[in-house]
Design goal:
Structural class: mainly alpha
Largest sheet: 2 strands, antiparallel
Helix content: over 70%
Strand content: under 5%
Shape: globular
Length: 421
């Protein structure tokens, strides 16, 4: 297996980045076809081992898999190149869409289009819940963890990082299975420490400078929030959204619930990792704080703190893939986190559903308990009908997500025009 030239690596990963629509499953399948079947740059085992490793890391697994593939082929420079090319095409599209959104998002036609998008997004989140549940809940033990996680985040409003830590602790304590026979890691620990120190410096020094230079603007707050998100974002983008959405809307007030749904809809229609939704959130929050210049700065800060940690996880951890998979307690902790993520996505599904179907949803706090109570008289029958329509398109007919989003948006325009609502 020959080492590819950088020009070939650039062309291949640029192609992957431009064509990476449809979420992580489609992106992973695309990379498999290109890197394993077409190019023969990775063996089937190398690709699947790397995929398993990346799915256990915080952050977008498809982007990290691209980074690992580049690292495997051409070292750290190859990893940086592959990771950047996977992100940049989608990030440029999100910049353009976010700028258009803050300029024209209040137009009636745009609101009508996004009603259809929101209905599709709700079904997409429900589909993600079904898929993750099928993979993660393989026994009563994991169901209990998922239910406890749901209660913790939906009814008790516990922070997502606390739920992750609790699940990992339970998983490690009750882990079973024998240790495997993976070969010892050949990389010196000193090299791993060096990579980690350099990665942390690249990630955090700009944030420290931002605290000094940006003053009382929103930028340091955005940097701190999304840095924390990068550390606890186990389970893919939908799990992150469950934690991010409620904090962004209820704690910081950067976006409304409707705008949060719009952001996910936009991210679903663009190439690149779905976690680019954080860039949209940063852009809109920055725009409200200081116009287009602040919006651009906030989006760049968000991109930095979202994706730089991904490079750190890969460059520090990639040589340990086989060893990690053979440690029972670590494996138990990670599978428990995945089960907890099911409960978190269930919370996201209900929260999104209430805000899509009802115009008024009130947060009610009684002691330690928190409830989201819809005003039943504000049910939007158009949203309910479109949600059923999207359920048919996505879950029954298996329509590609991009087509489903466009079809639902078009149906929303037709319904509104015919009924006059």
């Amino acid at each position: 297996m020959t080492q590819p030239r950088f020009s070939d690596l650039f062309a291949t990963f640029l192609r992957i980045g431009v064509l990476s629509f449809g979420g992580p499953a489609a992106q992973i399948a695309l990379m498999h076809r290109v890197l394993v079947d077409e190019r023969n740059w990775l063996t089937e085992k190398q690709y699947l081992d790397a995929l398993s490793f990346c799915m256990l890391l915080p952050g977008p697994e498809a982007m990290q898999l691209a980074t690992y593939s580049g690292w495997r082929l051409r070292g750290v420079p190859g990893g940086i190149l592959a990771g950047l090319l996977f992100v940049i095409p989608g990030a440029l599209v999100i910049f353009a869409l976010a700028a258009l959104y803050v300029a024209y998002g209040a137009l009636p036609l745009v609101d009508t289009l996004f009603l259809g998008v929101k209905a599709a997004v709700l079904v997409i989140v429900l589909e993600a819940l079904l898929k993750v549940s099928k993979r993660a809940l393989k026994g009563p033990y994991y169901w209990v963890i998922a239910v406890l996680a749901f209660i913790g985040i939906f009814f008790l409003a516990l922070p997502f990082p606390l739920i992750v830590i609790a699940a990992a602790t339970i998983g490690a304590l009750f882990a079973r299975g024998a240790k495997g026979d993976a070969l010892p890691v050949r990389r010196p620990w000193s090299q791993t420490v060096l990579v980690s120190v350099v990665g942390l410096a690249v990630w955090l020094i700009p944030l420290a400078a931002l605290d000094v230079l940006a003053g009382q603007t929103i930028l340091p707050q955005i940097g701190a929030f999304f840095s924390k998100l990068a550390v606890v974002s186990f389970g893919g983008a939908y799990a992150v959204l469950a934690y991010m959405a409620q904090d962004v809307v209820t704690a910081f007030g950067w976006l409304t619930a409707d705008e949060m749904l719009d952001s996910l809809g936009l991210a679903e229609t663009t190439p690149g990792p779905l976690i680019l939704v954080t860039q949209f959130v940063g852009f809109v929050a920055g725009f409200r704080d200081g116009g287009y210049l602040m919006a651009t700065g906030a989006a760049l800060v968000t991109l930095w703190v979202t994706f730089v940690p991904c490079f750190l996880w890969i460059f520090a951890g990639a040589p340990y893939i086989e060893w990690i998979a053979d440690q029972p307690r670590l494996r138990g902790a990670l599978t428990a986190i995945t089960a907890a993520v099911v409960g978190v996505i269930g919370n996201l599904s209900i929260w999104f559903g209430l805000n899509v179907l009802f115009d008024e949803v009130t947060r009610v706090t009684t002691g330690i308990w928190t409830l989201w109570v819809p005003d039943l008289t504000t049910l939007d029958w158009r949203a309910a009908g479109l949600t059923l329509f999207c359920t048919l398109l996505i879950l029954r007919l298996k329509m590609p997500l991009g087509w489903a989003l466009m079809t639902s948006a078009s149906a929303s325009v037709v319904i509104t025009a015919v009924t006059g609502f």
